[in-house]
Amino acid sequence: MVSVLILLSLALGITTLTLTVKIYLMKKSAKEICRQLGFVLAEETNTLICISSSDPSMKRLAAEINQELRLLRKERRRYLHGDRELKEAVTNISHDLRTPLTAICGYLDMLEEEEKSENACRYLAQIQNRTEVLKQLTEELFRYSVVVSTKEDLKPKTVAVDAILADSIAASYNALTDRGITPVITLPEKKVLRHLDASALSRIFANLISNAVKYSEGDLTVTMSDTCEIAFTNTAANLSPVTAARLFDRFFTVETGRKSTGLGLAIAKVLTEEMGGSIDAEYHNQKLTIKLRF
């Protein structure tokens, strides 16, 4: 009887030890998979997951993950190739449009000096107006193609963000007042200094103000904190939380957008993130708020 108990205890001990070792090895393999998967997803590498364990289940799990990684890389290559082709197409189209538009504007200026009937003057004014709109949209398309294809040669230096914001609002004051908008501006008393590219920052502010001109229903509030959080708020009754979230998507426009390509906020987002900042949109009680942080 004692011998049987000893044998049972010995068998139980061996089984427990075997299970403990197996669990340890499985946990080790799981940690290896997690560590390598994090590295593979974070880096652009063709490395696959390799584990030290010979356990069939863990090896099968690693093989399945590697298969999904191969598919993910294949789809990523397809996306990057298509995205690159789109950027090149946008750049080429914008270049092709600028040349004939410049010639059209030149001929319109010459035609302006000729004698014309009243109807001809009215038609010419409409043509000039539409041509100017097309020229503005083409320039916006060209600026976007430059930003996304080269990310521009940013030259960051210490700048007063509040001063650049004030200058941008002043430069856009006529466009705002033409839409009946008198901006309410709140700036910090002390200078807010950041290491940023002044030209890119000015473009971001100009695009955000231009967005207010397109979508505002007669108001604009600009507030800036001493922590460099800037909020542009305006009434936009025809928007919704869904459309507000899509305002940064390239080529996305809403029906209330005037003369818009849907690229202004996309450019602002690219430049903001390129300089280490963040930008997002919120929509509550028919108020659109775009927040910018550096």
UniProtKB/TrEMBL annotation:
Q: Which Pfam families match?
A: HATPase_c (PF02518), HisKA (PF00512)
> What general EC class does the enzyme of this chain belong to?
transferase
Instruction: State the Gene Ontology terms under molecular function.
Output: phosphoprotein phosphatase activity; phosphorelay sensor kinase activity
Known catalytic reactions:
ATP + protein L-histidine = ADP + protein N-phospho-L-histidine
Cellular localisation: Membrane
Q: What is its EC number?
A: 2.7.13.3
Q: Which UniProt keywords apply?
A: Kinase, Phosphoprotein, Transferase, Two-component regulatory system
GO CC terms in record: plasma membrane
GO biological process terms, semicolon-separated: cellular response to phosphate starvation
Q: Please report the name of this protein according to its UniProt entry.
A: histidine kinase
